[in-house]
Amino acid sequence: MQTVSTYALGTVLREAQEVNGERYLEQHFEGLTDEERDAMLGDFINRIRASGRYPHMAAVIEAGIDPDAPETRDERFEFGLDCLLDGIAARIPRPALARSRRAERGVTD
């Protein structure tokens, strides 16, 4: 339970960070035309590429992926939770399966 609870809490904190980032950008771009905003973003992207320090971020930008897109929040949470629960399930002992394997080897309890 603690692992699932920690995952949920982490997701809430991440979403709060995303929302704060969205608000920051809205405030930062307030009063700018679309062209001015696009020019600022283009300059930022060019600096990322030119630095050579962030190849993964550059690849994500080039692919047009927004890893923090609001419309994918539920999907991202569910995918992560599924992975977490699958990992937990894989570690749960399977007594019936273990008995079956012992029986196949001729071992009795």
Please mark out the parts with pLDDT under 50 across 5 or more consecutive residues, or reply none: none
Provide mean pLDDT, rounded: 89
Amount of helix: over 70%
In this structure, how is the largest beta sheet organized?
Answer: none
Structural class of the helices, strands and pairings? mainly alpha
- Characterize the quaternary organization of these chains: single chain
Through-space gap between termini: 32 Å
Q: Describe it for me?
A:
- It is a single chain.
- With 109 residues, the protein is mostly helical.
- The protein has a domain at 33-68.
- It is 76% helix and 0% strand.
- The protein is built from five helices and no strands.
- The longest helix is centred in the N-terminal third of the chain and has 28 residues, at 2-29.
- The protein is elongated.
- The two termini are 32 Å apart.
